[in-house]
Automatic annotation (TrEMBL):
Biased composition (Low complexity): 131-141
InterPro entries in the cross-refs: NOPCHAP1 (IPR027921)
Chain segments carrying region Disordered: 1-59, 119-154
Biological process terms in GO annotation: box C/D snoRNP assembly
Tree of life domain: Eukaryota
Compositionally biased tracts (Basic and acidic residues): 13-25
Identification of the protein by name: Uncharacterized protein
GO molecular function: box C/D methylation guide snoRNP complex binding
Originating species: Crucibulum laeve
UniProt cross-references to Pfam families, sorted A to Z: NOPCHAP1 (PF15370)
Length: 154
């Protein structure tokens, strides 16, 4: 704001939005102004990023631990298992399809995960009690689960 300028309510005016070039010029001018003010406080001029002293940065070999040995033994096993699975998929893709189960593997565990709680706050503000809105929100989420189940089976 400029001194001596009165700020009052505007009516019927248009909102002025700067374009990319104007925005770039404004930011550039602000950064140059900031650079000039910080350059007067420092006595030396640097070209490039400032240099930081990170202290002693020598590296050394980590001694073998039980965890490292177990990880090194596990990685070849998982690689062999992945190769066997890829070969099984190549020979018979239906044998590794987890979406469609056969008769002998008909039992399975299905997990429905709720990633959040839906609460309609407009109903709560309009005078409804908290218990009613929570029961509404749970019935809403149940009906949305049923709709999702119906869509996936089509």
């Amino acid at each position: 704001m400029h001194e001596g300028t009165e700020v009052g309510p505007r009516t019927g005016g248009r909102l002025e939005v700067e374009d990319k070039e104007d925005r770039q010029r404004r930011i550039q001018a602000a950064l140059e102004k900031l650079n000039k003010s910080s350059a007067t406080t420092t006595t030396t001029t640097q070209s490039g990023p400032p240099k930081f002293d990170f202290g002693d940065r020598t590296t050394f070999r980590v001694p073998p631990t039980e965890l490292l040995e177990r990880a090194q033994a596990f990685l070849p096993q998982i690689e062999a298992s992945n190769a066997a699975l890829a070969e099984k998929m190549r020979r018979d893709p239906h044998s590794v399809d987890i979406e469609h189960l056969d008769e002998e593997n008909a039992q399975y565990i299905e997990m429905s995960l709720g990633l959040g709680v839906y609460e309609d706050r407009s109903q709560a503000k309009s005078g409804g009690s908290g218990t009613e809105s929570s029961s509404d929100s749970s019935s809403d989420s149940d009906s949305s689960d049923e709709e999702m189940d119906g869509k996936t089976s089509e």
